[in-house]
Amino acid sequence: MTSYPKNKIKILLLEGINDSAIEVLQEKGYAQITCMKGALSNDELYEAIKDVHIIGIRSKTQLDALALAKAEKLMVIGCYCIGTNQVDLKEAQRKGIAIFNAPYSNTRSVAELVISNMIQLVRQIPEKNKQAHIGVWLKESKNCFELRGKTLGIIGYGHIGSQVSVLAESMGLDVIYYDVMTKLPLGNARVVKSIDELMQKSDIITIHVPENNSTELLINQARISLMKTTAVLINYARGSVVDLEALKIALNEKRILGAAIDVFPVEPKSKGDTFATPLQNIENVILTPHIGGSTEEAQAHIGADVSSKLVSFIDTGNTMGSHSLPEINLPTQEGAKRILHIHQNIPGILSAINTIMSKNNINIVGQYLATNTEIGYVVLDFKSDIIETEHLQQELASIQGTIRTRVLY
Fold first, then answer.
1. Domain 1-105+296-323 belongs to what topology?
2. For 294-308, what is each residue's pLDDT tens digit?
3. Is 238 a catalytic residue?
4. Which of 2, 118, 258, 323 could hold 284 in an S-S bridge, CB 3.0 to 4.6 Å?
């Protein structure tokens, strides 16, 4: 039994999170779960989040500093997607809120769709499909190619990029890649020294990088100009990575063969909303509404994965995979009590904690500490019938630099 009854913990899941997420939470005894299909407006979010202990979001909901300020009881955030850029990580860290996501659960879904788009673009299927729908028989082979023997350039050789590499090589493509980190190549893939080299050598370019300052407009007019006239560009990473106006010009001037774009700088919040992009109504362009990971299998995996992490943190204090708190993988201590202490990473905290434990004649049977540059996280397992845990929590909370404490059980 946790010190805070599970039937009192309020959970809010937004943006139509998969039922697998709810099933995991319910199986673990959590009952106060509110689910909503879409994202909320700012005012609606601020009202809904006030008394919530756990919130689950996808990519549309923005949990900025103002939203987090409204969430006075919030302990943990679940990002039911591969990224966390929709959350103010620094503010969440400052408030001692744990953040978890599912960075690998939709890898296969994205990789398969990228392969599909490669085939469609090099065969100019989008334009032929459009013409067939309006009654035009566009049967020709000009500028239509096989994948076999072509060079695929992958920018970002992480979990998705490397899986695309394996699938592509099995179809006869030569694979080259660029990554800012040193990555071991899979199969016969070869690393290149620069993005510019990759742009010049590739017949197909696919992007799989995170969104940050260094990747904003990574693929700009200058780099697009390096592409072969028969090359295609695929972006299933983040909308800020590609200069869409520059891409539009290159496509209209037939300086490249085609493009497939799944992510955009500005995206609608809800299904059915109006959407606009400079790339609409251009030949041999595939536009999809951020569905790279939108398969039943991927969403089920994501739902179960993130909810399991949320439950593990609330039930045990485990922070493995957290983007805001230091990571600790905690063992179970039979017959012990457990208390969590999240604090600023400043000198003297651990000494103050141990002084309080010693003063109260408490026998520590397990003590776990992890820190990052800003935050320290201490978990104490102890046995004592002398002191009430509520009194101990108050003493620990009085230590200068404490962010929050929680009696787990």
1. Rossmann fold (3.40.50)
2. 899 999 999 999 999
3. yes
4. 258
